[in-house]
Amino acid sequence: MTVIIAGHFQQQDEAKAALAALHRAGAPDGQITSFYVNPPGQHDMFPIGGDRDESPGSEDSDKGTAAGLAAGGLIGGAAGTAAGPLGAVTGALVGAHIGSLVGSLSSTDEEKDIPPLRKAGMLVAVTVTSEEEEEKAIDTFRALGAQCVERSEGQIVNGDWTDFNPLSSPVFV
């Protein structure tokens, strides 16, 4: 694997300018690439669409659902006994349903450290072999107005980033 520096641009003209600047800086043609990155959720990783089986922030919601289901069922069943046998069953079912909803919501963590997603737009990437080349590429992208610059590892072969994964978490520099 080699080090790859990539800049994200919104406009295709900006990406073309970055490609030209990298060529002027001496980067070999086969070690530079540019392509469009689709928005998150539109990479068709699943047959029915989407990228992920589960939202990264909801991994604990199953436990919360189970806890809420049990607590709501007990409370609803106890409260429903005052209305007779049918009330106990109905109360338990309604309580379990409401408890599961509350439990799953309270188990998602809005403040959790979820890795950032790669934003949509034009991506221009170049292979670098030294720290000097890395700094030069980063400075070039920033000077040309890249929205963000990331450092990655992979293979650019004949102008194609062969092992690029749009779902991997970018490491911004």
Describe this structure in words.
The chain has 173 residues and is α+β, with helices and mostly antiparallel strands. It has a 5-stranded antiparallel beta sheet with strand order 2-3-1-4-7, covered by helices on one side. The model has no long low-confidence stretch (mean pLDDT 80). It has 4 helices and 7 strands; from the N terminus they run βαβααβαββββ. The chain starts with a strand and ends with a strand. The protein folds into 2 domains: 2-52 and 115-172, Alpha-Beta Plaits (2-Layer Sandwich); 61-106, no CATH class. It has helices spanning 12-24, 61-80, 85-106, 131-143; strands at 2-9, 32-37, 121-128, 148-154, 156-157, 160-161, 171-172. Helix content is 39%, strand content 20%.
The percent range for helix content is 25-40%
Report the span from N to C terminus: 19 Å
In what range is the share of β-strand residues?
Answer: 15-25%
Q: Indicate the radius of gyration in whole angstroms.
A: 25 Å
One letter per element, helices H and strands E, the order comes to: EHEHHEHEEEE
User: Which descriptor suits the 3D outline?
Assistant: rod-shaped
Helix segment tally: 4
Report low-confidence residues grouped into runs of 5 or more: none
Query: What would the average pLDDT be, to the nearest integer?
Result: 80
**What's the domain count?**
2
Strand neighbour order, sheet with most strands = 2-3-1-4-7
The CATH class of the largest domain: Alpha Beta
Largest sheet: 5 strands, antiparallel
The CATH topology of the largest domain is Alpha-Beta Plaits
The structure class reads: alpha+beta
The total strand number stands at 7
Q: What would CATH call the architecture of the largest domain?
A: 2-Layer Sandwich
